Amino acid sequence: MGKQVWRVAVAGGAAAVFTAVAAAPVGAAEGGVSFTRVRVNGGKPIVIGVSKEVAVPASFRMATTRKWKWPAVYLYRGADDRLWHAVETSDCVKVSSGVCDINETMYFDPSVWDMRNSEAGVWKVGAEVHFVGGGGDTDDTDLKVRVKRNSRLSVHASPQPVSKGRTVTVTGKVTRANWETRKYASYGGRLVSLQFKPAGTASYTTVKRVYANGSGGLRTTVKASKTGTWRWVYYGNATTGPSTSSGDTIVVK
Length: 253
Fold this sequence. Notes:
It is built from no helices and 20 strands. β10 (121-131) and β11 (136-149) form a beta hairpin. With 253 residues, it is an all-beta fold. Helices cover 0% and strands 56% of the residues. 34% of the residues are buried. The protein has strands at 3-7, 34-40, 46-48, 54-63, 68-78, 81-83, 86-90, 93-96, 99-108, 121-131, 136-149, 151-158, 167-178, 183-186, 191-198, 205-211, 217-223, 228-234, 243-244, 248-250. Strands 1, 2, 4, 7, 8 and 9 form a 6-stranded antiparallel β-sheet that branches. A 5-stranded mixed β-sheet has the order 3-11-10-5-6, with no helix packed on it. The protein has 2 domains: 3-148, Immunoglobulin-like; 151-250, Sandwich (Immunoglobulin-like), CATH 2.60.40.730. The termini are far apart. This is Calcium-binding protein. Residues 1-22 form the signal peptide.
């Protein structure tokens, strides 16, 4: 199966690559094209860090009697505010005469393209296509997607080993991607769950919930009852993705 790839020529995540139809109003139907069965990232939020390219799967069905090229779905907030860094689409998977299923991958790379922290939140999904010979069609798909800043958690439990019944101190820190500095920064005030998994078992259980201090620091104490592994879990919010720390195992003697 063939593919087509376009790379945005300017930084900022707010440029339209299909300049011939960029001015068409969202919801327009001047080209007689319909876009249906649109899916982006399986309906899940798009979570982006500061250094790794994120590949987001998408798909849609397009129906038209016109000869076309370069169809794609994209994220937008306004006529001149789009968010993507590259788009890769498959060739037409023919359903019937004039009807194609198309698979797509959106790429977001914060290490190459500038991103604003304000871009975290809800984005609408639009679709557009160029026609052979000029012109095109742009449409709103009535679909929305959340874009979130990645978060991270660290963990440290001590002392190691510890006597049964003594106090174990579990610390850590919650940080969040700052797209503008391309670094992770302290994310204070977050409510984070402390979880424990006894040795020889597969499942973690939440022991308590702790608020991070203003610098994102986490600290709490528990009684040592059995050997096992401690970790922190943050469930995220409207603009920030969830995260889970690695585990720190404490041997109880």
